[in-house]
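Section 3.1 - Work completed
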Amino acid sequence: MGTPLVEILSEMGHSVYVTSRTKKDNKKNIGIHYIRGNALDLDFLRETIQRGWDIIVDFMSYNEQDFRKRYEMLLENTKCYFFLSSARVYADSNEVLITEESPRLLDKAEDAKFLNTTDYSLEKAREENILLDGKKRNFVIIRPYITYNTDRLQLGIYEKEAWLQRALSGKKIVFSREIAKKYTTLTYGYDVAKYISELVVVSDTIKGEIFQIASHYCIKWNDIFNLYLDILEEYMGFRPEVVWIEGVDGYTQRKLFYYQAHYDRMFNRRFSSDKLSEVLNKNLIFTDVKEGLRICLQEFLDMGGHFLNKNWAREGALDKISGDKTQICKIPGFKNKCKYFLFRYIL
């Protein structure tokens, strides 16, 4: 979402400043400037935001303790602070449309063990509470759900490295029959960025409010999976093999993604965008999910897209389920070799 948001705000005539840990050249002709540094570093953040800003859009992921150290500073140095939360905060909606007022897991879940974790859904809800319980109201909370683009193509709990990369390397894809039956909502990242930019324009009138930004369209994970497989079959000349898991415990690979599966992907996720539509005073248009995913996956394949560093514990667990093996010599680093061996052959 961040990259298209920068481009959209620039096209709207705003001067946009982006923190980046790597050196990037400014694009002064179109109003884009880069500030080199790690935004998680408290000293860097303090120095950067003390300049004073009209709007701060915060894409960083904090733990609750770190957010407590920062939120007052962020609010004090901007007219409006946009906090990127997540629609993963919601509890199971029992198949009804989710609105901004729908109950959250933090408030409704009864699983004491889960509530004692720092799961992403709980951390975001706790950080929302810090803002909502504070004295300052110059913030807007945004709750996007699963987003996709050419570089991010998700399947259930997996990023592309755990299913697409496996398929392209000749391995089997592991998927859960239970999750395949569930309805989900995937939103094109550019669409989310576009509506964030429009909320920026009206920020003076929406302070202290919460907005979810998710497509109207819901779809079963199985339909998404079949779309992926069709495209891969056309690209590779054969259909990737699939290993189906009954339930979700085996699918989460020895608890690696247990809570994400049980407290999100096993829910049917359908969202209402009425509040966003009302405040923007327009009918919202979202990219059709099947067409959008088709274009993004095809572009990734055609351009030889980039995979992120592999999670070797997860890869070992997937190989154990599928019966595949990875040659130890192809696994970088001693620690990664140990993780793979542990999850492939022992746990």
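Second construct:
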Amino acid sequence: MKVVTFFFCLLIGGNVIARPKFIEVWFLSIDRTSQLLEIIRPALALPQFAQASIQCQPMGDYCFDPQIGLYKRGEESKVKDFIDLTEIEKKQNYNFLAPHKGVERNLIECDENSGFFDIFCGKAKKIKSKAKIKLELWFDTSSTLRQIDPGGFDKFCKRELFLDTLSKSCRLNEKMKVYYFDESRKEAGNFERVCVSDGLNNMKRIVSDLRESKAEHVIIVTDIFEAEESFINAIEQMGSSTIKGLDKPVYARDLKKEISRIQKICQ
């Protein structure tokens, strides 16, 4: 009986140790302000006037301008009065989050002294022991994220912009690991699929996977629709946890505010 109890305690103790020391869950809400802009943009968007003056190629009672099309003679002032959203579009860009492509371009390290063949280098690269990665980020990619973080006019959702920028200092698979999840969890080799929002969630399975994680710090980014009591309780029972987005809404555009803090975590 004592032997059974010993092994049972050892098993429980092993599971506790396997859990992350720090867990963060960010529940993202629908940004009504961004939604409103998406609604009014198509209604107001007209050709952007890059030229100083409106051209008039006479066509009967009308003029033709390559940027505008046909307009009635003498109504140039009315055409100019249309709202131009060029400046608004520029302000919506995350200039400081310029998409960073080629995340894996420096992951190949050619070692001339190694004795193994490598298809990328011609000679083999030395097999190096991998250090434990402290930080993991788990991103929800289920269908409800379409309402929370859709791909905008620049085709990049805020999650991808966030990861692209973060990876400049927290290199993927060196300083951090990234996972996507819906009904199951998959490790990310790049950030191209983080904006693909499809399928349902299985949060019970995510909790089970979280108990098995060996990372020191895990950050889960999901939406407010997953803020169920059973999921929150399971997270809080695992130990040191931070939950954002319940008392005060957190939006996808707020991800940029966390970059500098997370950069320190991954070091």
